[in-house]
Amino acid sequence: MIWEELQGELDALQRDGLKRTRRTLELPCGPQAQVDGQPLISFCSNDYLGLANDPALVDAACAGARVWGVGSGASHLVSGHLGAHAALEEKLAEFTGFARALLFSTGYLANLGIVPALVGRNDAVFADRLNHASLIDAVQLSRADSQRYPHADLATLERLLATSTARRKLILTDAVFSMDGDLAPLPGLLALAERFDAWLVVDDAHGFGVLGRQGRGSLAHFNLPAAERLVYMGTLGKAAGAAGAFVAGSATVIEWLQQRARSYIFTTASSPIIACALASSLDLIAAGDARRQHLWQLVAQLRDGLADTRWRLLPSPTAIQPVIIGDNHDTLRIAGALYARGLWVPAIRPPTVPKGTARLRVSLTAAHSEAQLARLVDALRELA
Description:
Elements: H1 2-15, E1 32-35, E2 38-42, H2 55-68, H3 76-80, H4 83-96, E3 100-104, H5 107-118, E4 124-128, H6 133-142, E5 145-149, H7 154-163, E6 169-174, H8 186-195, E7 199-203, H9 218-221, E8 230-235, E9 245-249, H10 251-260, H11 262-265, H12 272-286, H13 289-305, E10 312-313, E11 320-326, H14 328-340, E12 343-344, E13 347-348, E14 358-363, H15 370-383
Parallel strand pairs: 2-12, 4-5, 4-6, 6-7, 7-8
Antiparallel strand pairs: 1-2, 3-9, 8-9, 10-11, 11-14, 13-14
Subunit structure: Homodimer.
Binding site for substrate: 20, 132, 352
Pathway: Cofactor biosynthesis; biotin biosynthesis
């Protein structure tokens, strides 16, 4: 029976330490969590600036609901593009320095829209091996030739580009890699894109709002200009504290995506409430240097606190601080021991990360206190 096959595969996931567990939170997003009545300090969230439950965003959402209602009612190109969406797109373009921006309902949908709209058969995509699943799926949807280069390996990428006879070329990368926390070599990637006349599509899901001057993202971190061949995607459910995503680029590229990105054309526009909250969020991000400074202090506190232990941290300069353990079951055991101490740190296992590199993914936010982080450091030292 086909359902018996599924159950057998579920049993195999459990046996291999790969089955995922969903928990229901009983408090709003923040460092203080509660699950089944148990109080926890959460190190799971991508709410890097602590804006998800900020009163300013809540007030903006409530005010937006009174003006615009709750739903958009249709896709953007039918009748769902409301004034709140238009205002947010203009604000995002100005914030990132690009000519135009286009809203998407999620980062996953944005990536699924960008790549197939820019390349197809007889074209080639050159993608970092550690790219997010949404970028991998986007390449498959595009039907372009897929060339994957070793993580951040500019020399190999250069050779692949030099030998390619594709009609169009597209370099595809995360800016901050979500499971390692390191940065892509964006200046080198842009130089190669210029040299070989290729698009450079950058997914800055984990850099937008956190890195660069006033949190303007990874391009700003590297002082890169808003070049014509650059297509920049940022998510709005992480550091921005709400939901959704945007793509920024030249006026021509954004107009083309508006006409051809299927995940934009054929989905209902997001709630105007979200757009109103995000307009407020951009103001807080721009004025958020103190939040970001506190976040970097927490990163240093964690790394210094575990420096003389057996725990191996990857060289991450971002809010994502992975602790490599290796074995799936060992990782689950350590995560369980922390959970029993009231500390919630997710255990990340294959296929999200390569086999043999299971890890604890510590996500730090500006809403964490030094005392909360000290509890995690002390627990990890004890478990070491």
